[in-house]
């Protein structure tokens, strides 16, 4: 009798254990995500589930077409979730407890508020999804990247999907010839004479996210085929908090930065400061074949350079909630850069038989300094209880750039050739003011939204170029009247826009139109004056998006964009630093218009996502640099003249593939590939009628390792075509490892840049009577070490969000 009883007991124990195991993983957290204003469901919102006390999400999912989510197979325990979606402030829900008896938690309706109302939200540094996709572009959350810590905006942009950063630090969207950089929704090119200088010193720790807008909404200016919008951090936790950091590299570069904030009941103050020191070194080899009916000869030029750059960036912001219906934000930015440079180049003149006939040596030195100041004021007024809002903003900017260079030329062969010495002093000032008045309001039971607004922008550019040549007989510098000039540029743009956003279950439609009236005038100190007849431009915008079956999305967009010629391309001042390679602008340029269409598709799994995009654009009057080579009369030398022109039309077809895979909650991989087929047609020159294929690829990997360590890497490659040649870039790489101490307050990071070798670039260019190949390399291979200390513990939410009752 004992054996049957024992068997029965064992069977009961096994059944109970099985039931317990089943019950242990039958926990469910569910709910619905909606808009705070309007109550409309939000499909594709990211739901991240965390076990209390951990930094990495246990499970990441997304809402269906009705905004609903259900996270299943959870063990009993204490959880909190984070909900995030592009254009809305993140929402944290704490205190979710699953037990064997109470294993199903329905959180009901969870409301997300617009980022514009983030002053009322509590922001904590919990990791966001690194990349978020939308019908109109991609958002890169800077705080989720190790490579971003202790670095600058330029460093961060190198790892953003769809973005390409060239060897000079200029950022563009892959497949777009004309990309504009915005900061907090406002164009930065109105704020500084050199955008790369600003990005090279802007600290990454002050950046919240980077939006890559391939289809900018009608609220934005019609300039540029795409916009990279850098969104700065504005809201912080209640109380005083911030961080300080320092980094240094074996190349001699260094970077220090700090940001801090204080937030009271109805106001917050935040600021940041950064200082950067950088040493740049490199060399180049330029080989040009010049062929004419009666002669052929070659230029073989070798050069080297070294630059020392220092710069500082200071930002200060003040947010004030005047009343429940009114808010005010004041912000300022000051940026300064100083540089010293020296370079050498040796130009070998080779005959058709490759025999050296002449050798020219040139030594160039330079000093430059620039500074810019920007002041912003933004005022928001809630006009009614249904969510209507009126916004008024103004931006005033002033920047000044002084560049002094001297060029000393001698001839080693023949030694009888006279030397020359020239000084160039370029003094540039840029002032502007931008005014915006915007209104938005939910309509039709707060389901849809209308937006409209007016804008005015004024710019003034003053470019004063003084060129002096040294007279060796009198030992004095004499002004070169032919080349010295002052270029004065004035631009006025008045704009108005209206847009309508429609949302229904699983559907999203955005449509709008923007009108801009442009008035441009510029003149030279030699008496030449130009006034461009005011012209009106219309920029329609359409975006369709459909989310279905809980994991698929399909979208389509269409817009028209403009590339206006501005001072850098219009200024006819001649740069004759190299008398055999001169360059100048073209005051007769016309604006170029581009029609852009895109189809995008998305599919999402619990551990992966895949977003292919197919885009087509056609441009009329494309503005690109154009080179001609002519034989100098009475000599055996040829001069290259480089200027800008409306070279013709360009049709471009691009396939862009973006994917993410997360096999575990501690490993994440992402990649993107862009293939662009371009077709140029030109009446200007038959040599511009060409087809070309551009290619860009990037792959990234991040891992959370034991003992609070982490690893991240990124590889990039680009090869681009243009109207007259090709830029063949090499692979760039970044590897970074981090270790945190003292409850995540202190972290140490080491980064290896371009471990496979210094970054190089090969440029091919050809015309009717020349072929050119240029190879250059920079000292980008570097080991960088960084320390960063946070004033507060980043995993603590000191003010919990409003309680949410389980249903």
Automatic annotation (TrEMBL):
Q: Which UniProt keywords apply?
A: Cell outer membrane, Membrane, Receptor
Cellular-component GO terms for this entry: cell outer membrane
Superkingdom assignment: Bacteria
Key word Membrane present = yes
Q: Where is this region: Disordered?
A: 413-432
Q: Where is the Outer membrane protein beta-barrel domain?
A: 382-789
This protein is called TonB-dependent receptor
Where does this protein reside within or beyond the cell?
Cell outer membrane
């Amino acid at each position: 009798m004992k054996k049957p009883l024992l068997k029965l007991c064992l069977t009961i124990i096994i059944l109970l254990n099985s039931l317990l195991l089943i019950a242990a993983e039958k926990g469910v957290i569910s709910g619905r995500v909606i808009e705070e204003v309007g109550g409309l469901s939000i499909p594709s919102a990211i739901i991240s589930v965390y076990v209390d006390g951990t930094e990495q999400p246990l499970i990441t999912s997304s809402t269906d077409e009705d905004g609903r989510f259900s996270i299943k197979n959870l063990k009993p325990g204490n959880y909190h979730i984070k909900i995030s979606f592009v254009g809305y402030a993140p929402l944290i829900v704490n205190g979710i407890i699953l037990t064997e008896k109470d294993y199903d938690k329905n959180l009901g309706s969870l409301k997300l508020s617009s980022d514009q109302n983030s002053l009322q939200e509590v922001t904590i540094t919990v990791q966001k999804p690194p990349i978020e996709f939308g019908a109109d572009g991609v958002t890169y959350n800077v705080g989720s990247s190790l490579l971003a810590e202790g670095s600058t905006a330029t460093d961060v942009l190198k790892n953003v999907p769809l973005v390409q950063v060239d060897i000079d630090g200029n950022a563009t969207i892959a497949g777009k010839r004309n990309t504009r950089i915005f900061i907090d929704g406002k164009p930065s090119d109105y704020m500084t004479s050199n955008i790369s200088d600003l990005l090279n010193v802007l600290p990454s720790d002050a950046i919240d996210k980077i939006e890559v807008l391939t289809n900018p909404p009608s609220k934005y200016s019609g300039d540029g085929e795409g916009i990279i919008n850098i969104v700065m951090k504005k809201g912080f936790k209640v109380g005083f908090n911030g961080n300080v950091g320092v980094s240094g590299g074996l190349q001699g570069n260094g970077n220090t930065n700090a940001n801090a904030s204080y937030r009271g009941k109805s106001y917050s103050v935040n600021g940041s400061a950064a200082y950067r020191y950088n040493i740049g070194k490199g060399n180049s080899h330029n080989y040009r074949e010049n062929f004419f009916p009666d002669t052929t000869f070659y230029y073989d030029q070798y050069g080297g350079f070294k630059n020392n750059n220092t710069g500082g960036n200071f930002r200060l912001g003040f947010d004030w909630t005047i009343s429940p219906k009114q808010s005010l934000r004041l912000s300022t930015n000051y940026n300064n850069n100083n540089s010293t440079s020296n370079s050498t180049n040796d130009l070998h003149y080779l005959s058709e038989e490759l025999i050296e006939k002449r050798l020219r040596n040139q030594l160039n030195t330079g000093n430059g300094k620039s500074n810019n100041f920007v002041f912003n004021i933004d005022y928001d007024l809630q006009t009614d209880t249904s969510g209507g809002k009126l916004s008024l903003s103004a931006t005033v900017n002033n920047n000044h750039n002084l560049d002094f260079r001297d060029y000393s030329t001698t001839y080693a062969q023949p030694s009888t050739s006279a030397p020359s010495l020239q000084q160039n002093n370029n003094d540039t000032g840029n002032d502007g003011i931008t005014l915006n008045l915007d209104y938005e309001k939910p309509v039709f039971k707060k389901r849809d939204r209308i937006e409209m607004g007016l804008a005015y922008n004024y710019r003034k550019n003053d470019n004063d170029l003084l060129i002096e040549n040294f007279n060796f007989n009198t030992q004095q510098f004499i002004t070169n009247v032919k080349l010295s000039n002052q270029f004065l540029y004035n631009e006025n743009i008045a704009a108005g826009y209206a847009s309508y956003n429609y949302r229904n279950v699983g559907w999203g439609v955005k449509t709008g139109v923007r009108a801009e009236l442009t008035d441009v005038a510029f003149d030279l100190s030699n008496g030449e004056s130009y006034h461009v007849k005011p012209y009106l431009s219309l920029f329609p915008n359409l975006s369709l998006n459909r989310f279905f079956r809980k994991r698929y999305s399909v979208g389509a967009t269409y817009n028209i964009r403009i590339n206006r010629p501005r001072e850098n391309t219009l200024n006819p001042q001649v740069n004759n630093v190299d008398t055999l390679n001169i360059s100048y602008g073209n005051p007769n340029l016309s604006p170029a218009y581009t029609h852009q269409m895109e189809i995008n598709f998305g599919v999402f799994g619990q551990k992966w996502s895949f977003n292919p995009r197919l885009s087509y654009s056609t441009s009329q009057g494309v503005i690109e640099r154009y080179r001609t080579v002519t034989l100098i009369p009475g000599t055996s030398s040829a001069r290259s003249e480089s200027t800008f022109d409306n070279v013709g039309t360009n049709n471009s077809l691009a396939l862009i593939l973006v994917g993410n895979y997360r096999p575990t909650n501690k490993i994440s991989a992402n990649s993107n590939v862009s293939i662009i087929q371009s077709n140029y047609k030109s009446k200007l020159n038959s040599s511009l009628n060409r087809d070309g294929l551009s290619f860009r690829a990037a792959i990234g990997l991040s891992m959370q390792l034991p003992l609070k360590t982490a690893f991240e890497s990124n590889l990039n490659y680009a090869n681009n075509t243009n109207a007259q040649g090709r830029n063949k870039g090499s692979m760039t790489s970044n590897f970074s490892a981090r270790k945190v101490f003292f409850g995540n307050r202190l972290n140490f990071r080491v980064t290896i840049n371009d471990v496979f070798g210094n970054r190089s670039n090969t440029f091919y260019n050809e015309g009717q009577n020349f072929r050119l190949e240029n190879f250059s390399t920079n000292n980008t291979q570097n080991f960088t070490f960084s320390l960063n200390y946070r004033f507060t513990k980043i995993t603590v939410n000191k003010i919990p969000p409003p309680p949410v009752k389980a249903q």
